[in-house]
Amino acid sequence: GDGALSSQLHRRGFRCLHGVDGSAGMLERARSTGLYQELRLCILGREPLPAPAEHYDAVTVVGALGEGQVPSTVLPELLRVTKPGGFLCLTTRSNPSNLRYKAELEAALGQLERSGAWQKLLAQEVEYWERATIEEESTQGNGYISGVVYIYQKCPVPHVEEG
């Protein structure tokens, strides 16, 4: 994205930030913040993330998991680059035009949890997630779209007994 999240993370002490986006223009906006150590062009869900397996302590996708944006099939790739015991923070909107995607995303999140890939730590509804651009998208008729923040922890690799 444009780097808006990086300024919030930086204020809270995070200093080693890497970012990806499918738009060179958005990467330039992010680069202008001066807060990233690395920025790479990557279309999430269509190509592998430009990082080795188990590379990151935490992975965030904020504002991109939605209808017509990043497909929910990206989840295994996000897990691939997260260290065992690392965290994933994901968000999606709850507006009417995103409800089908949200249901699909939550089914995929649940399937990965049942498989033992990660453990859900939080799924929190946020009523005033972002301003609605049209009244029909307003979740409660208040001019805002609600959303959900999900936090997962990648499960450690199980120890295999030899013998």
TrEMBL record:
Source organism, top-level taxon: Eukaryota
Pfam families, per database record: Methyltransf_11 (PF08241)
One of the record's GO molecular function terms: S-adenosylmethionine-dependent methyltransferase activity
Signal peptide positions (record): none
The Methyltransferase type domain, residue ranges: 1-89
Name of protein: MET27 protein
